[in-house]
């Protein structure tokens, strides 16, 4: 069978995967704190020919120069699907509990069993005055053993959140400033190694490293970090993927026509 037939099939599968990644990026262009994906290809493997010509590379000798190996590639494969952790654009909301991190770091949240990390800072207070995400996960304070952030805004005339996550309020009773809690921010040696688990959440992986609590960026109150998807790049990639898919389909069609010619030799 023709090698090009199988090479074309591998190309179709890879471009389909790339289209899936791009489609997911475009679908999440408006998702708060979303980090886009990127599919990378690598060649599958190469077959070294055996013929009268040298199949392996050789060094030069006293009378003959060196030769290169004769190899034919047998297609491509998905080398990696990366998460691009670059900063998304800021959207000003003016709401105190809308937070974004300018720079490195992730907010820590918990479902009571597991700790997750997110860049989506649209937070709310529940009936127990715990700071929670839109899905009800509790936001944790700073440190390895952070506890749920809790405060009652009704006792204060105003609430402010500083760049290090410290929540402060001016007491209604005596107009004195009081420190209420501190929102935790975790950083990772390899943030692109975090695993997406849905709901704009990430989980620690073996390659992300442990959560650290130094070197984090500044917290901005009254703003949200939007998706880092750039539609210009995505539509360019969409066109490239479509043409690549069409070209690989044409390789398969051409290989099929050659095979048809071979099967027709007996008739002719």
Automatic annotation (TrEMBL):
<keyword id="KW-0282">Flagellum</keyword>
<dbReference type="GO" id="GO:0071978">
    <property type="term" value="P:bacterial-type flagellum-dependent swarming motility"/>
</dbReference>
<dbReference type="InterPro" id="IPR037925">
    <property type="entry name" value="FlgE/F/G-like"/>
</dbReference>
<feature type="domain" description="Flagellar hook protein FlgE/F/G-like D1">
    <location>
        <begin position="100"/>
        <end position="168"/>
    </location>
</feature>
<dbReference type="GO" id="GO:0005829">
    <property type="term" value="C:cytosol"/>
</dbReference>
<dbReference type="Pfam" id="PF00460">
    <property type="entry name" value="Flg_bb_rod"/>
</dbReference>
<protein>
    <recommendedName>
        <fullName>Flagellar hook protein FlgE</fullName>
    </recommendedName>
</protein>
<dbReference type="InterPro" id="IPR010930">
    <property type="entry name" value="Flg_bb/hook_C_dom"/>
</dbReference>
<feature type="domain" description="Flagellar basal-body/hook protein C-terminal">
    <location>
        <begin position="221"/>
        <end position="265"/>
    </location>
</feature>
<dbReference type="Pfam" id="PF06429">
    <property type="entry name" value="Flg_bbr_C"/>
</dbReference>
<dbReference type="Pfam" id="PF22692">
    <property type="entry name" value="LlgE_F_G_D1"/>
</dbReference>
<dbReference type="GO" id="GO:0009425">
    <property type="term" value="C:bacterial-type flagellum basal body"/>
</dbReference>
<keyword id="KW-0969">Cilium</keyword>
<dbReference type="GO" id="GO:0009424">
    <property type="term" value="C:bacterial-type flagellum hook"/>
</dbReference>
<dbReference type="InterPro" id="IPR001444">
    <property type="entry name" value="Flag_bb_rod_N"/>
</dbReference>
<dbReference type="InterPro" id="IPR020013">
    <property type="entry name" value="Flagellar_FlgE/F/G"/>
</dbReference>
<comment type="similarity">
    <text>Belongs to the flagella basal body rod proteins family.</text>
</comment>
<feature type="domain" description="Flagellar basal body rod protein N-terminal">
    <location>
        <begin position="5"/>
        <end position="35"/>
    </location>
</feature>
<keyword id="KW-0975">Bacterial flagellum</keyword>
<comment type="function">
    <text>A flexible structure which links the flagellar filament to the drive apparatus in the basal body.</text>
</comment>
<keyword id="KW-0966">Cell projection</keyword>
<dbReference type="InterPro" id="IPR053967">
    <property type="entry name" value="LlgE_F_G-like_D1"/>
</dbReference>
């Amino acid at each position: 069978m023709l090698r090009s037939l199988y090479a074309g099939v591998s190309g179709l599968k890879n471009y389909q995967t790339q289209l899936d990644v791009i489609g997911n990026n475009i679908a999440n262009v408006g998702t708060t704190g979303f980090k886009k994906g990127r599919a990378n290809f690598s060649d599958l493997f190469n077959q070294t020919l055996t013929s009268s010509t040298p199949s392996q590379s050789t060094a030069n000798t006293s009378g003959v120069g060196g030769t290169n190996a004769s190899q034919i590639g047998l297609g491509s494969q998905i080398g990696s699907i990366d998460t691009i952790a670059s900063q998304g654009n800021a959207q000003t909301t003016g709401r105190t509990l809308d937070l974004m991190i300018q720079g490195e770091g992730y907010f820590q949240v918990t479902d009571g069993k597991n700790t997750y990390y997110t860049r989506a800072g649209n937070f709310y207070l529940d009936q127990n005055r715990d700071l929670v995400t839109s899905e009800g996960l509790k936001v944790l304070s700073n440190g390895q053993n952070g506890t749920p952030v809790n405060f009652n805004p009704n006792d204060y005339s105003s609430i402010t959140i500083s760049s290090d996550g410290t929540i402060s309020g001016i007491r209604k009773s005596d107009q004195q400033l009081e420190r209420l809690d501190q929102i935790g921010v975790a950083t990772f040696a390899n943030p692109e190694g975090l695993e997406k688990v849905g709901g704009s959440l990430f989980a620690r992986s073996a390659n992300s490293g442990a959560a650290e609590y130094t070197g984090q960026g500044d917290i901005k109150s009254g703003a949200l970090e939007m998706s880092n998807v750039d539609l210009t790049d995505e539509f360019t990639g969409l066109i490239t993927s479509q043409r690549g898919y069409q070209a690989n389909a044409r390789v398969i069609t051409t290989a099929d026509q050659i095979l048809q010619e071979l099967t027709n030799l007996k008739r002719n």
